[in-house]
Amino acid sequence: MENEKLISMPIKDLAQLKIVLATWYSFLKDQAGSLSKEAFASSLKTPVLYDLEKDQIEVLFTGSQELLKQFSDYVFQTTEPSES
Questions:
Q1: What's the domain range around 69?
Q2: Can you tell me the distance from the alpha carbon of 35 to that of 20, in angstroms, rounded to the nearest whole number?
Q3: From residue 22, how far is each of 26, 39, 49 by CA, in Å?
Q4: Helix, strand, coil: what percent of the chain each, to 5?
Q5: Is residue 11 within 8 Å of 17, Cβ to Cβ?
Q6: Do the bridges between strand 4-11 and strand 48-51 make them parallel or antiparallel, or are there none, so unpaired?
Q7: Considering its fold, how many domains does the chain have in total?
Q8: pLDDT tens digits for 24-49?
C-alpha cells in the first residue's frame, strides 16, 4: 500500500491487548465504506510483538497517515460528538 505509515502502542497485559484490538477492529468496520478492500484487509493485519527480554507487548498499527490520525482521534476522543 502506498504512503503507508506505522504507529506502535505498548501494551501492559493480554486483557489490554484484547481491548485495543477490538477497538481497532470496530474503528475499521466504521471506516469500511471509505477504505478500499485492499486498505481494509491490510489494516486488519495488525502485528503484535512480544519482547521476551523486557516482557513487553507492542502492537503495530499500519495505514495511511489520515487513517491513523482518525484512529487516534477515535481512541482519544474526550467528548461526545455534538449533534447538529
A1: 4-75
A2: 20
A3: 6, 18, 17
A4: 50, 25, 25
A5: yes
A6: unpaired
A7: 1
A8: 999 999 998 999 998 899 899 999 99
